[in-house]
Amino acid sequence: AAGFTLEWTILNTNSQLYDYIALGGPDITNAETGSFASNTTGGNQTVTLTGAFKPDIVFLFATLQTASGAANNNSQYTFGVMDGSGNQWTMAQKTQNASDPVNSSRAFSNTKCFFMIRTVDNNVFQDMSYVSMNSDGFTFNIDTAGGTAILIGYLAIKGGRWKVGTDTQKASTGTKSTTGIGFTPSLLMFGSTCDTQAAGTADNARLMFGSTTGTAENTALWIGDSDNVANSVTDTIMSNTKCVVMGTEGTPTTNAEAALSSFDSGGFTLDWTTADATERVFGYVACGSSTLPGGKNIIANQAVKRASTY
How many helices (H) and strands (E) does the chain have? Predict the structure, then answer.
């Protein structure tokens, strides 16, 4: 009634930390997770939900697997999101296995909902863009087909108000507001490849995820993997006081980080406590209430916290 329970079927002897986002309240009327195989040729592809509802937002994720439980020697990951108004962004990373020097790269796009990088270079392997939310699912277009049926996981949600968009890091410390959302958020999720491009690929595999449900509830994690080095340089950063962290592997170095300053009418404000002069792009997902003013009811039992030990 006030949380969730996990059954850990495999454990190690170390105490570890994980982050979570809990969504609830009467606004959320339908939600479904599942997976599908992407078409091997270009053109529209429709995914039908077993729950037969029209989503307001869809999250997509993949690791270049062709079937559940399949294995791949290369490190490849894609995350994408699209809302019912057609706003979308996606980010991806790849590191080629047994490559000397290391071959790693990243990609971000605010015109695609899915982007996967080729293993051998920085070119696109497969990318997709939003077409529509349907009465029983969603449709996207395969703009570039890789010729392989990739297994893609999804989370589709109906209810609440959602807005997907992008912004840039503040180039100095202090607060910066993002506007144009159209409602007061009560949840924000963030993603970035720590690059200045809103659409394109770059060397070095870097990904950042973050989220916040209030000024006292922030969490973020960052991973980095250097390209073109003889011995791999990989690092991670995790924070339960910031919702955005931009890093560089090697030490690692935190180049910029921010926590929520306020949820605003029509947007939000971040407080950049650390910043350099590089205006790195990040994507955001804003969620708010569709039934009550001020975004007060979409998240019952709000929680974005670092978990206790298991």
Answer: 0, 21
Contacting residues for 41 by C-beta, under 8 A, at least 6 apart: 142, 145, 147
Q: What is the DSSP letter of 288?
A: E
Q: Using CA atoms, how far apart are residues 92 and 293, in angstroms rounded to an integer? A: 36
Q: What tokens appear for 75 in the block? A: 């490190």
Whether 54 contacts 48, CB under 8 Å = no
Residue 13's pLDDT band, with cuts at 50, 70 and 90, is confident
CA angle 155, 161, 164 (to 5 degrees): 65
pLDDT band for position 186 (50/70/90)?
A: very high
Q: Name residues whose C-beta falls within 8 Å of residue 226's C-beta, 6 or more positions apart in sequence.
A: 102, 104, 204, 232, 233, 234, 249, 250
Please provide the size of the chain in residues.
Answer: 310
Tokens of 229: 């080095």
Two structure tokens written together for 249? 């592997």
